Amino acid sequence: MYPTRMGTHNMRTSGIEPPLNMVCFTEFMQKAGYYCTNNAKEDYNFDTPEGTWDAMSGRFAHYRNRKEGQPFFAVFNLTTTHESRIWGLEWEQLLTDPEKVHVPSYFPDDNKLVRRDISRSYSNISLVDHQISVFLDELDRKGLMDSTIIVVWSDHGGPLPRQKRVVFKNGSTYGRLMAINFAGDLDHLPPSIIEELIIFKREGNGNISNAAENVLINLDVL
């Protein structure tokens, strides 16, 4: 259901109850046997319906709490690259040289603050890379790597001015990575890049399709 139909298309809409006939896609996944958790951000612009998640959304929501052998759909919101971390992590060591970063044409090239913030943004991405590796290591230790579809994406474009909240390419284009292991069945296929337009609204549809197909019903989704 599109936000404009519900009146939730403006940022920080609150106090709106979804239509009675609307359910979040996780409820379809739960009916298919999935354990669904969210850790921890709820930025839906409407009040979260009861039963959306098996575990209350929070810092301790985790697929570890499911029944043994139960497939799962687990969301982890890593906020390290959020725009607030441009200044919120200024005390962290920069992992990218400010003198070597590419400065977009809409920023002044000779401004040290601009270069520092761009460097901070790239450095934060490196920190997220490490955080993701922790999740991957745990899946590997638990023997779940070959039965888990892993999807990594941001919820909008870059965190700098003229990026977030602006409907230009820099604000509406986001990166998305997907790893499908299938116990090595796809090892013969090289990594590939999809250049076609992907719409956010279809993410949930894909998750429901995965859960509904008998072939994929026992796969975990992270």
Keywords:
globular, 222 residues, three-stranded mixed β-sheet, alpha/beta
Strand order of the largest sheet: 4-3-5
Order of helices and strands: HHEEHHEHEHE
The number of strands is 5
Low-confidence stretches: 212-222
Distance between the termini: 23 Å
Polypeptide structure, described:
With 222 residues, the chain is of the alpha/beta class. The protein has a domain at 25-67. Helix content is 27%, strand content 10%. It has 6 helices and 5 strands, in the order ααββααβαβαβ. The protein has helices spanning 3-6, 25-31, 85-88, 112-141, 169-172, 201-212, and strands at residues 35-39, 72-76, 148-153, 176-180, 220-221. Helix 2 runs parallel beside helix 6 (201-212). It is globular. It starts with a helix and ends with a strand.
Please describe the topology of this protein.
Layout lengths: L2 H4 L18 H7 L3 E5 L32 E5 L8 H4 L23 H30 L6 E6 L15 H4 L3 E5 L20 H12 L7 E2 L1
Parallel strand pairs: 1-2, 3-5
Antiparallel strand pairs: 3-4
Concise structural overview:
The chain is of the alpha/beta class. The chain has helices at 3-6, 25-31, 85-88, 112-141, 169-172, 201-212, and strands at residues 35-39, 72-76, 148-153, 176-180, 220-221.
